[in-house]
Amino acid sequence: MPGWLGAGSPESFVDCMNRDEPLPCHQTIDYDDPDWLAKWSAQENGSMCAGALVFMANKLQRPKAPGFPTLPPDKTNVFANTIEFVRHHREAGTHSWDDDEQNEGARLQREIIRRGAESMGQPIVDFASMPAKARLMPKGAPKKTSRQSRRRKQPTSVLSNRKR
To answer: Where do the structural domains in the chain lie, given as residue ranges?
Structure first.
């Protein structure tokens, strides 16, 4: 779901993957258990996130740590690159994480990814951090004239094609 990554930002996930830090699979962890993190850290429950492993393969990133599991690439069902992943979550209208609570590695990744996207002419628009009024009309979009504002859009269903 766009914008939903729990308490971690998309850049915090990228930071973990870049450091070969195992990410827990949301389908195998009991997040209602108050000790889930301690159990996960001790490898007493859950498994690694298959999506993160495929994403790493899509980016041609191989783990540095011996014994770290790998999966084959799949750019059809999993994000092909970091900017695509970050854009998918950052450009959502709401976020599950708090940017002020992200670690320094995540903040650094955010700046690196932002600059990379901008240099490619594809800036990432963080809609959730914009004021509500600014979300309605992107910067540089032509403003409606009063005449355009009064015009109502007609329905385009098959039934509305009859002459009026």
So the answer is: 10-137
